[in-house]
Amino acid sequence: MKTSKYFMPTLREVSSDAETISHQLMLRAGLIRKQAAGIYTYLPLGFKVLKKIENIVREEMERSGAIEILASALQNAELWQESHRWYEYGAEMFRLQDRHGRDFCLGPTHEEIFTDLVRNNISSYRQLPLNLFQIQTKYRDEKRPRFGVIRSREFIMKDAYSFDIDEEGLNKSYEEMYKAYRRIFDRCNLKYQVVEADTGNIGGSSSHEFMVISEVGEDSLIFCDNCGYSANVEKAQAVDRQFVAESIKKKEKVYTPNIKTIDKLAEFLSIESSKILKAVLYTDEKARTFMCLLPGDREVNEIKLKKLLGIKELNLASEEEIYKVTKCKPGFSGPVGINKEVFIVADNEVKTMTNFVVGANEEDYHIINVNLNEFNVNIYGDIKNAEEGDNCIKCGNKLSSSKGIEVGHIFKLGTKYSKLLKATYLDKNGKEQPMVMGCYGIGITRTLAAIIEQNNDEDGICWPKHLAPFEVAVIPVNIKDEEQANLAEKIYEQLKNHNIDVLLDDRDERVGVKFKDIDLIGIPLKIVIGKKISEGQVELKFRSGKETKLVNIGDIIEEVKNFYSLT
Amino acid sequence: MKTSKYFMPTLREVSSDAETISHQLMLRAGLIRKQAAGIYTYLPLGFKVLKKIENIVREEMERSGAIEILASALQNAELWQESHRWYEYGAEMFRLQDRHGRDFCLGPTHEEIFTDLVRNNISSYRQLPLNLFQIQTKYRDEKRPRFGVIRSREFIMKDAYSFDIDEEGLNKSYEEMYKAYRRIFDRCNLKYQVVEADTGNIGGSSSHEFMVISEVGEDSLIFCDNCGYSANVEKAQAVDRQFVAESIKKKEKVYTPNIKTIDKLAEFLSIESSKILKAVLYTDEKARTFMCLLPGDREVNEIKLKKLLGIKELNLASEEEIYKVTKCKPGFSGPVGINKEVFIVADNEVKTMTNFVVGANEEDYHIINVNLNEFNVNIYGDIKNAEEGDNCIKCGNKLSSSKGIEVGHIFKLGTKYSKLLKATYLDKNGKEQPMVMGCYGIGITRTLAAIIEQNNDEDGICWPKHLAPFEVAVIPVNIKDEEQANLAEKIYEQLKNHNIDVLLDDRDERVGVKFKDIDLIGIPLKIVIGKKISEGQVELKFRSGKETKLVNIGDIIEEVKNFYSLT
User: Fold this and answer.
1) Under an 8 A CB cutoff, do A73 and B98 touch?
2) Shared domain check, B56 and B153
3) Dihedral, CA atoms, A338, A343, A345, A350, nearest 10 degrees?
4) Residue range A239-274, pLDDT digits in tens
5) Domain shared by A61 and A210, yes or no
6) What are the record keywords, sorted (chains A, B) (predicted)?
7) pLDDT tens digits, residue range A395-446?
8) ipTM greater than cut 0.95
9) Largest CA distance in chain A
């Protein structure tokens, strides 16, 4: 390809809403352009890399025995009503009607479609196991699309669905996918962590996320360097702290003027924040407001909380709702003296707290030296986030934490969907049994962004060699110099003949401009044709490391081949 | 691949709504399954062939210099409002709103998106010409989806958009696409005709359709075997007939009881239907009812009619609307004595009619021996369909006709979209000019169906060799015979090692059942492993022609390679 005939509009500047490096570089290097919030067009360079990632995914899925199909994005509402998710999915699902007024959605995921397909076409245990996948466009109307294609509303996903006769079969299919995913992300040169994760609105019994380690990741990971335990913070557990019991002191109301935060209160009272009992008020889907208690240095884990209480929606209570319960404005809430009808849930760590501080439910007042006999707790459980420095639930060692971008997620669905949609098979004894399912997703477009997030420098993208949009750029220093132009053309043709994907930068631009663009785009190897022609030489410039090397013109092909096969 | 681990659910029977052979075979051979009306899932076999077609399209598009990108299916309304098509597209466009109430559509086509992309990223004549394409999913809410993936609501299309500095450039880009399309459909082994076509709601100055000749085609083609002229009936022209002038006879009202059709009237009066002046009443978008006149043996061409009158909508007038104009019920309408305010349009052929028959605007009466001086015609033009047997407009020879499936359509758009969307470039003199555009579409999924429509027999699909989902099927006659099973496995592995795409039918089924499935699916070559093993031989069975051939086991690879390279 020649730049003069190509479409690679690079930019010097990008708009300020591009917050992450990958978003900025994808715009600047001309990989994507925004069509609407969270909706992008993939330009030639972006498209080429996307296809390379797709091919890796396809090869590894096929290696694992999965079979590719292609379902529609438009899905009729009936199947989603059968699984009840039509009513549960909420605003994230794009819904529409056809000309006859029939309800459809744009598939945010395809459990229903694949389960329906398999229930209609598979009837015997002899036809199982089966693992079907697709690389297809998904739609999620994100509340806050951001970070370019990391959190977008139309995106490409590889999703797979396995169907087995029993749990043992599912475990095997799941293990195969786990291994395939490792191969895929290894081949994408990603630094990632596999973590236990919550199953969310997909459901099922267990799941793992594949998290690309990155500061811009929207997920927090907790992991143990000692035993390898790792989990999404949504799911991560740690050993509960046991506080040293103190002899009971006398409780006392203290004036804490305008002191509403844990930190200020701890400072004001000169105590550790873990001596404060934090009270957070929530309202559930039935508009019931309840109180949630935990040590002051802990954060509520809303997913754990929802699970513990078996509720579907959780919203922080409004000022009005707080007032109804505490008769006080926010900042001074506590469990002492509260109406007995208010439900109270407390974290397990609260069990060993003594002589702690609570809000007095009175403006500008807290109570110190409170103990558990002063109020009633309806239920105890693990409702806090595990944190760096906590002790590992598996081996007791100190836990670490980092941020991650979720690029893959695998789920053991069990019989959730097969029971709802009646996807059954006849077993060896002719008895009808529900299929046992798993589902497995990879965000293809997000993986592209994650690769860039981990592979860049101040000049632009530094592609892993096999993912670069072009393998080699041929750059004549001065395209108007006939000798240079001719040699560039000749080398370009030679490389093409050796099946090397080469870009000839034949623009009439200063060589500095060309270098800048080619480095921004991230082509791993530049062949620079300049004054050294007179000595029968050209210069090889490597994107990584910035080394250069003079080589004889006759050796170029061999040099390029070495570069691409040696690593 | 082994059938035991594959997903190819074949069917003996299909539902009666599968009217065409391709639709029936795609269901029976397990290529597709219906998800909703006009919405399909591509199963593994269908998906494989789809990819082969896509690759042909991609290769030829790239050969022509076009560059691949990928735009979104979700398109914000604003661009469509800019081009006015938001208001013009009608019910065929799927529309929806996001969670913030913003309007979107599911792209039925991408002129706006590509024009927007190019206007934002190209500014100079030096960056043109440019031809961008994508292979992407389109959405059209067809009034009557049918024939499986031939007329579906979610389908895969290759669409390309060219941007040139002037008409001459456009002509060149258009010619390149014309040639690429010929190469594509030639490589798909299709029998097709390229015809002049109407530009419809895409717009532009001229266009060609690529029509696969087929009885189930929804389009009618007119073509001249002599000079090669060919056009969609929507667009086709023929030489107007000149009727022999008769001496004027006296007009006379005749009683024609309950005779409402042209055929019955001609029979009743013992005349040629061309002696009857057919009057058809239409209502336009402004609810104006007008009369359209043509010889009784001719059909109105509504597209020509709309163009001639410059109107946007055309509906046959209702009984009520007809009564308003003629004061009579339908079946007896005519131009004589009608209110002068009623607009009358007549076909050019009417000009030479004499002593003809018209409706009397009175129930059960017609008038005979009417001549043109009896009424006023507001405008004459070509408003009829050309028909088989007419004389070619180019060479005068007799025209032929056939039915066709439109698989490709190319348009010269000119500056329609670039002017509406202000897609301009700076020319050599620094002057702003609108880009000159073309657009080019291929229905990928429809092409798949068209190939099957032209390549099948009573046993199933007969794929062109290079498009078959598998190149070879290895079939042990009795999988329980250990010797057969082992040899089958060995041959299967050998073929795989030679990069031959092979299906091993290892099901425990009668060999007849296997043959039926493999023939239905259309694999071009079967290797049957049976009793001849004892003589060191297997049988090759060819899908086309039904020949068989005994070959030595050691010669199999060579035989297969010969079969695939000789044609």
Assistant:
1) no
2) yes
3) 20
4) 999 999 999 999 999 999 999 899 999 999 999 999
5) yes
6) Aminoacyl-tRNA synthetase, ATP-binding, Cytoplasm, Ligase, Nucleotide-binding, Protein biosynthesis
7) 999 999 999 999 999 999 999 999 999 999 999 999 999 999 999 999 999 9
8) no
9) 94
